[in-house]
Amino acid sequence: MQSIVRACFLPLFWFLWIRMANPLIDELLPYVPFHKLKAGDFLPALQHFRKVAEERLAAIRANTGAADFENTILAIETSAEELAEVSSAYYVLFSAEATSEIQAIAGEVSSFLADFSSDLFLDAKLFERVKAVKETEAGVDTAEKHRLLDLTYRNYRRNGALLSEEKKEKLRGIDRELSQLAPVFSEHVLRATNAFTLYLERDDQVDGLPETVLEQAAARANKEGKQGWVFTLQYPDYMPFMTYCKDRSLRETMYRAFRGRGLDAATDNRPVIKDILRLRHERATLLGFETHADYVLEERMAGNRQTVTDFLEDLLVKVHPAAQKELEELRHFAAAKGCDDLQPWDLRYFSEQLKKERYDFDQESLRVYFPLDKVLDGLFEVARRLYGLSLKERTDVPVYHEEVRVFEVSDGSEQVGLFYMDLFPRETKKSGAWMTSIREQGLCRGKVERPHVGIVCNFTRSSQSKPSLLTLDEVRTLYHEFGHALHGLLSNVIYRSLAGTNVYWDFVELPSQIMENWTREREALDIFARHYETDEAIPSDLLKRLKAAETFQAGMQFLTQLNYGLLDMAYHTTPPGMVSDIQSFETQATQRSTILPDPEGLCISTGFSHIFAGGYSAGYYSYKWAEVLEADAFELFREKGIFDAGTARAFRQNILERGNSEHPMDLYIRFRGRAPDPDALLRRDGLVA
Predict the structure, then answer these.
(1) CA quadruple 151, 152, 157, 160: dihedral positive or negative?
(2) Among this protein's residues, is 326 annotated catalytic?
């Protein structure tokens, strides 16, 4: 009889199990099961692991013993480890494989995580125990434990633990609103990017464009059942179009479309920006800071907004004369070519023409030496020579798209971690390039785990007749993002909050930007820069011309980055009530640093994802700050040898492995033997002797 009952009910049981099964809950190990994930899996998994985390946090609150590092600080640190991994998986997809279903739940996911964060940091009983450990330092017997204690205490203070109950509730509401706005901003930029295409039919319209770009555009047109060429606002289309297309009116069309993203009624980011600025300011003042910049910079190497302002203004004074001289030179050159009113959509085109005339150098002539497969092999060889790493491709690790590749990274017999690569543009992927942390290094599930990290780019695809041939800019982007990946992969700390790229944001770009230098050195170029047909290295005369052109218009390029940094700081040091019109404010804030002002009706800000959706608010200056660090650091590599084992070992041990386990300036001085020289960057760019 019992067997009959079991037989009757077993099918129903299995049906319920299958219906409710969730790979994010059941199959999170050993790899994120990307191949099985559906948008509908995320909220149930987040809810499940929030419950797990809340049970752990309840146990900390209920502990009647004296608070110490292990039963309080470490217990909080590891309380939501699975929740963090599920949220990381979601944001990997939201950035790189943002289907309509993934985008549709962005607001719910962001609000859910913001609510959990608020509950954690506004919990009076938990903070009471954290504060007790801060006062007694019970169980804090190592430097890394001390760093985690300080970080935990500061996180509670900076997230409202000292506020009254009334103000805590107000902070919860602000955080919930802010969490929903960043995904909206990103979605608007992505939709605006995908909404635009430029269809061209005549040969004269595409005159000057490189063959590689034309093949890609023709393939896109063919896919749509058209003759001719289809161009998009994705970087592999947009950048070469603006650089090489002879038709000025078409360059203007592309430029206006790019600078107009986030301005039309369906994707208008101006009200989103105003709401973000208002809420950031309210949050900062609620927590006792004058501005959002003051709040952010308390946790940066710079330390305060005056230091950042002085840093940017000092560079502006030093660079502006060179940039203006370069601009006047470009005006004269363009005028001689028949263009008497130089406009922003002319800058890249005439700059490239001037460079070609002066140095007999064309960026496109380098493409044939940068076939993607050889560039990747060379990148991995550079990693081997510097840090002893080997990378072996894995085909058994689940991925979220068929173009994603995965490599196991090893140091001798020891596994370092997993490295994911997603290199080509798609409509479901946002523009640009970034490193993504899928699983951080550090203590999780009772042991110190190795990391899973990835890089996501938008590089030129292969065509019917050629393999993927990269531009020099794309090669440098690859090295840049791989530098971030190395920071995550080589992390060697105990606690995840201190691991890898969890460092001050004006330090995080050091490992990435220093890697770009290996694309400038003959010794490294000979490893990977090989002609895709003949396998010959870059000829010496071409390399000489490249070297000579490296500092071409360095002042204008430098000024462009300062322009973004100054705009960012203006937004985040100005009371939001004074930002009544986004475009007018942008024009006013950048009038001293803009090379050529945009015509009315265009805007940088509405597509400025770095500061409104990417974590760089009051932090865009950090690119130049980190460039000072990396220019100074690479001078040591150049002095000792770019593959010098001792220098590489020192950089790995003091920078790449240590994460946020110590103050970044202490780490830098230990590597370099002194504080950074601020003029190192200007020397490299040829702006000072």
Answers:
(1) positive
(2) no
